[in-house]
Amino acid sequence: MKKLFTILAVICSINGFAQTNTATWHGVLKIAAQELTLQLHVDEAKKEVLLDVLEQGAEGQAMEVVHLTSDSIHVTIPNLMLNYQGKVVGDSILGTFRQGMFKTSLNMARGEVKYNRPQEPTKPYPYQTMEVMFSNKEAGITLFGTLTLPVDYKGKRVPVVLMVTGSGPQNRDEELFGHKPFLVIADRLARNGIASLRYDDRGVGVSDGTFENATTDDFKADAQAGVAYLRNLKMFSKVGILGHSEGGTIAYMLASERKTDFIVSLAGPACRIDTMMVEQINGLASSQGATTKVVQSVADAKRVLKVDNNVWLRHFFELDITPYISKISCPVLSVYGDVDRNVPASMNVPILRQNLSPKKHNITKVYPGLSHMFQHNATGNPMKTMKIEETFSEEVLKDIYTWINSL
Question: Does residue 168 sit in the same domain as residue 103?
Fold first, then answer.
């Protein structure tokens, strides 16, 4: 889901400086009980500086450069009253961070933050992958992705899933907070006899189109084009959708229209979105230490999120997914984490259990201690996502491929 509650509302990335004129620097900003990892990419020759706020998955917004040389830096984001100033000493920047009346030291070390991601597969893979493309003809765009075939694939018809990302511009790996969950899922599926297609969102990576101002209906149309492409290949026994968050909602919507043979919804909203957003804002705030509710009503949520200024969010707020659920006839696996602060299981699971037909392959399951990203995360605080080595629960991975192979 989109980052709806942040301590520091900044995004940015800097192409560093030094003998090579470019460098990357990182440091930890401490704000009360919170710690935010900031990463600067500095390009002295171009006088460009960008800032990443890694715990928020935020990156790429340019800062204004006041002063930038090989031995000093002064950059700002005026509308946020944010200011960073420092001097280069060896492989460090000794600096000071200011935002409004807040001031603290912020020293940075040369180099990018390195993550340990033990679940990510490394090449050479024991299975075949290929770059493919498919078109959403109505929108006039082409989407590019990776088709992964199972280990020892010899042309036998096998099940395949189209992976649909959550909200916000994401690449085919659904790369967030230094994790690549769709890459990990595709790897596990391939090792267990299941093919997959994951693709860059429109306007992201190498896919055509514009992400800005696209709505859930637009992303649904892109996914429908992906399903049609997989069917036309005539390589697969069943074509399903595996969607995360908003992608899970899209899976419900397409399943209700009988566009797919099965679906796996990972933390997909199945309820009224506007009321869920009230719980989301308060839940995210609570996970970060808030002791009182931030919003009391849908009107409050719309005001806090500035819904009227965002085409996607305005459309998303109007959705009620419940009517779609009762129209689904294909097998459904819906999974949630019980500390998910973005899509609370308590609001969605009862709707699924009341409205899905009681077929043996329709399974709704809640996993203790798992967050919206399906990591073990005691509080569900998304700010901790980056620092957790686990990308995706092995228990959930096993349940997914076991269930698909049982169909």
Answer: no
178 and 48 housed in the same domain: no
- Give Cα 148 distance to the centre of its chain: 20
pTM of the predicted protein model: 0.86
Q: Is residue 338 domain-shared with residue 193, that is, in the same domain?
A: yes
| 162 shares its domain with 29 | no
In a shared domain, residues 177 and 78: no
pLDDT digits (tens, 9 = 90+) for 57-108: 778 778 999 999 989 999 999 988 999 999 999 999 999 999 999 999 999 9
**pLDDT tens, residue by residue, 35-56:** 889 999 999 889 999 999 888 8
